[in-house]
């Protein structure tokens, strides 16, 4: 009998004998059927006409919360190590914008070809998110996170050796693969290694990876570039990725049986290849959450991309304009983990998610149309409340996916939605600006935010999510 779980499988060799081959995942309560204690707390299909097993030869999903607490790892350690690896990978993307003019000069690139140094990451997200989900399910979350670091180092090394614009763009495409690996696999890793009542906090820490990567990329790269030049900068970034990945490799314990990497279970001889159903990935709640996430990313990329231009047009210094537009990201360093803690403690997931999305549209509209005191107030409100949304999406989305066995694929859809939102936001906003100016841009961001809020307000969350949060107090 083969027993399936969200993160692995249990093989029942004979009645009374159980072998664990991988991590056990989320599911439903179990009937009492006389099986060993290792697999109690799981649902068995007890319809076995051949009577070879006490509980049949059907599917089984093991509830994550049924695992002993000792099976989980320190949530602070895991989340910090994962976010450090994520920041190192995100640095790979954001090391270019602040030194773009120098790169264009060194490689004789025009504006169109230089834009590919960044847009290739969006293309990677669109085309590779779903395949990465399948890979994460096959090889395990930690293995894919390690692969993300290795691929980032390889891409950065290739870029350091590039002698033409074409090779440099190709190296950026390799780095884009690493970014997708990281974005899909880390939330999956959190749910594998962190106790259920600490997932909110860990998700809040992880949600900082992209914003902190962009911040440090913009701050560190010009200084490093001025000191050691192009090749030296790329080597430094590769070294940072190696260091962060090494810490994760050493101190995040695999739960699939390996010492440093997850041990990938092999199919038994003669056993049919396991197929994964896609049912439950496109339910009403899933589509509503993905729709809200799409709107969020369109709003976010709109103000991040165009607010500095507006503020400089209003006479603000370029440095101050850049600070004003990134202030929400800095404030989110505190608010993102706070939203995770609130989610763990209160269980009011929908209220927190809707509230955070509700302020995004109005705040983005102000950032695109105002250069006075209201600008700073909007930036702070967005940072404190609005940018709690990524944390809530990471917490809520897995809870509405009915097919827990396909969770890595579901995370692929989430990253795909993020990439589409960033692509659409950056593509549509210039047309809006051309048609109606900054007032139209602000109104566009406002409408996107309100549409996203309406979609999230229609999401129906199951009561057990709240009950579990109450039991964890």
UniProtKB/TrEMBL annotation:
The lineage of its organism: Bacteria, Bacillati, Actinomycetota, Coriobacteriia, Eggerthellales. Residues 78-466 form the Major facilitator superfamily (MFS) profile domain. It comes from Gordonibacter pamelaeae. GO terms for molecular function: transmembrane transporter activity. PROSITE patterns: MFS. It is found in: Cell membrane. Keywords: Cell membrane, Membrane, Transmembrane, Transmembrane helix. GO terms for cellular component: plasma membrane. Coiled coil: none annotated. It is a multi-pass membrane protein. It comes from the Bacteria. This is Major facilitator superfamily (MFS) profile domain-containing protein. The chain crosses the membrane at residues 76-94, 114-134, 146-170, 176-194, 206-225, 231-252, 285-306, 318-342, 349-368, 374-397, 409-432, 438-461. SUPFAM superfamilies: MFS general substrate transporter.
């Amino acid at each position: 009998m083969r027993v399936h779980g969200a993160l692995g499988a249990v093989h029942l060799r004979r009645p009374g004998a159980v072998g664990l081959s991988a991590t056990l995942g989320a599911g439903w309560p179990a009937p009492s059927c006389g099986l060993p204690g290792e697999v109690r707390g799981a649902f068995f299909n007890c319809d076995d006409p051949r009577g070879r097993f006490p509980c049949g030869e059907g599917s089984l999903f093991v509830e994550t919360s049924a695992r002993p607490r000792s099976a989980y790892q320190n949530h602070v350690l895991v989340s910090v190590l994962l976010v450090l690896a994520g920041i190192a990978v995100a640095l790979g993307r954001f090391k270019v914008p602040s030194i773009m003019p120098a790169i264009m000069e060194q490689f004789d690139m025009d504006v169109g070809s230089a834009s590919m140094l960044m847009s290739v990451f969006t293309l990677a997200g669109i085309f590779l998110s779903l395949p990465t989900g399948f890979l994460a399910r096959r090889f395990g979350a930690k293995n894919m996170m390690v692969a993300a670091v290795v691929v980032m180092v390889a891409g950065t090394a290739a870029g350091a050796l590039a002698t033409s614009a074409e090779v440099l763009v190709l190296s950026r495409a390799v780095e884009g693969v690493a970014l997708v690996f990281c974005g899909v696999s880390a939330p999956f890793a959190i749910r594998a290694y962190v106790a259920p009542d600490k997932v909110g906090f860990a998700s809040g820490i992880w949600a900082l990876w992209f914003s902190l990567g962009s911040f440090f990329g913009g701050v560190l790269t010009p200084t490093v570039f001025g000191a050691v030049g192009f090749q030296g900068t790329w080597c430094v970034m590769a070294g940072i990725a190696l260091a962060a990945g090494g810490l994760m490799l050493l101190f995040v314990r695999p739960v699939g049986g390996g010492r440093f990497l997850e041990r990938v279970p092999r199919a038994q001889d003669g056993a049919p290849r396991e197929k994964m159903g896609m049912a439950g990935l496109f339910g009403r709640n899933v589509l509503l959450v993905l729709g809200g996430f799409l709107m969020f990313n369109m709003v976010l990329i709109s103000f991040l991309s165009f607010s500095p231009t507006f503020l400089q047009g209003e006479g603000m210094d370029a440095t101050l304009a850049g600070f004003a537009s990134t202030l929400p990201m800095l404030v989110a360093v505190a608010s993102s983990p706070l939203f995770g803690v609130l989610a763990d403690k209160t269980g009011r997931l929908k209220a927190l998610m809707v509230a955070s999305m509700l302020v995004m549209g109005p705040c983005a509209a102000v950032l695109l149309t105002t250069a006075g005191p209201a600008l700073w107030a909007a930036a702070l409100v967005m940072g404190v409340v609005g940018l709690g949304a990524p944390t809530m999406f990471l917490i809520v989305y897995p809870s509405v996916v009915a097919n827990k066995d396909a969770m890595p694929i579901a995370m692929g859809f989430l990253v795909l939605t993020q990439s589409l939102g960033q692509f659409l936001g950056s593509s549509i906003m210039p047309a809006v600006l051309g048609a109606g100016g900054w007032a139209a841009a602000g109104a566009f961001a406002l409408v996107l935010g309100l549409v996203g809020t309406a979609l999230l307000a229609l999401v129906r969350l199951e009561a057990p999510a709240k009950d579990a949060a109450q039991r964890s107090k």
